[in-house]
Each structure stands twice: as C-alpha cells, then as structure tokens.
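Entry 14. Ran structure prediction on the chain below.
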Amino acid sequence: MAEHLGFIGVGKMGGPMAGRLLDAGHTLTIFDANPAALQPLKTRGATVAPSVRALASAVETVFVSLPTPDIVRAVALGDDGIVAGDRVKTFIDLSTTGPRVTAGIAEALGKRGIATVDSPVSGGVAGAQKGTLAVMVACPRPLFVRLEPILKLRQEILRRRQTAPPPAPPRALTSLKQLGGAREFSLSLGERAGVRASPPLTFPQRSHPIGAPIEPLPARPSDPVLIELGALLPRGFLNTIPFERLPEFPRYLKALLTRAERAALNPLKDRQRAQQAAPYLQALTQLQAAPPNSQAARQCLDDFRWMIEEFKVSLFAQELGTAFPISAKRLDQQLERIRAEAAPAQR
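Output, structure tokens:
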C-alpha cells in the first residue's frame, strides 16, 4: 500500500534509496541541506520541505540517511528537528550512527511518542545505485512487521531478530546472505579443511527462529579453521555481537574460507601464520576468563578482540583488506592499554 513518506538526506546514498520509494508508488516529501541534491527527486514529483520540522509535520514515517552521528542527532533532536514535528510517528535511521547515539535519540524521541528504528545499510554508493544494499533492522516486532514491505523495496531481508525497545542498544541480523549463507558457508569451510560432514558436526540452518540461540560448530583440536569458526559464531552470537560489527562478518568468514583453501595446499605456512596470532589469542582467552573491573579496560578488551580478527585477516587473506591499520605492534600496544586501564581499579 502506497504511503506518504519523508526522506532527509538525499545525496549519493539517500538519493537512490528515496528514488526506489518513488518507483514503488509512494508519495515523498524530502529535505537536504544541499539544494542540488533535491532536484532529481523534485523533478520526479517529490515535494521539497522547507525544513526538517516542516517535513516531520507532513508525514508519519521519516527516513534519514546522513553522514555522521552528530548530524543525525542534530536532525533528530534540534530545535527545528524531527522532535519538533507534530505528525511524525516513526524515525528510521539508515545511517551508521552507533548504539550509544541511537539510544539517546530513541529515548528523547520516545518521550514525544516517536518510535526509532535503527536500520544501517551496507553496500556503499554502488549498492544504493544498483538496489543491492543489505539492511539491518532493530525495532520492536510489531513495528518491523508494519515497515517490512517498505524496507523490502531496498533489499532482501533474509534474517531478522526482534530487540528490546530503546534505550537498550539495539542489535539485529537481517541479512544472512551477507554472512555468506551460514549453513552452506560453514559446510564449505569444513569440507575445504578436509573434515567430512558426519553426524557430530552440526551447522546453523538457513531459517532459524527469531531470537533462538545458534548452536556453535563443534571443533576438534586438529581442525584450527573450525576452531576459529566456532569462536567467531558461538552459541547465541546474535545476542553478544555489537550491532555495528555485523557488517564486517562477511569479510571475516571469507578470510576463514581463504585460510582453509590455502592451508590444504601449504599446511606449514598456515601453522607459521597461526603462530603469529597465537600469543594474542591466548592473551584474549585469559583476559576474557577474568575480565577487568574497569569499564574502560573492558572496552579496550572488546576492541582488542576485533583487532585480533583484523590481524587474522591480514595474516591469512591480506587481499581482503582490513577495516583499519593493524600489526603485532598495535596489538602489543592495545594489551598495554588494557593493563593500564585495569591497574587503577585493582588498587
């Protein structure tokens, strides 16, 4: 059913997404700080609002696609922002805002009866133009059910998980396809590592009940690739993985697959590379077994975990690239930060 929707931020990412809403027959009211970005959609029949407040007073559902968390906060909570509108009921954030800012926005908008949907997209400008973006959606289930027909215009949602209402940081996984197809990908890893899929090995199914725990992959001591896979996708990992980390998992899984392929050809080199990561994995295990009391130290420890994942990508599948510069030296420095942050709390 066609609706009257609002869209704020119609540049390189938002423009193509907003255009697909028009393609589907929806009426669109738009706003952007750059007048030039508005013109293509205006030509196609979209109405240009004079301000964010005016847009939020014209529609019940507002999408935003904005470059930084600070801009998202200003648009949502500013004096002339979404919060000042007198009609808006649902705020859908397509930006990569992060759980802390999102929680603050959700709490403030909630006081005005406005529901927040945290829905970052992955795929870049090319994905927006081709209509192949993956989207992650975190919101109460009834709201998701109402919005799903609109959201499906922009991506194929293959997996989702209901989360508690804000202000708790929302987490959801809605694109199994981006994770490589969990069952097929895991099976492929096992086979390429020389492990037959016998009854003791179980794999996540393609369709898993929303919110239900996912069984870990049993790993044998002699199968390092399966050990890594089990550590990356443990039981109930959807409940523990930070929402903003999920888009990195396709690359982590691809790195594991690449490692499995190369280890079969040159097991000695695989062991040599694994030895470079081993001290940091051991340190991580020890720290997680007795986590520091300091919140700052625990945050450093969480960062350390993901730094190790990036380090493994650099060791076993360098061609995939890393999310940030990483090296053994940087891991050593992070360990020192953890110890330094933990020291005051132990006194």
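Strands lie at 4-8, 27-31, 47-48, 61-64, 90-93, 115-118, 121-122, 134-135. Will compare against last week's run tomorrow.
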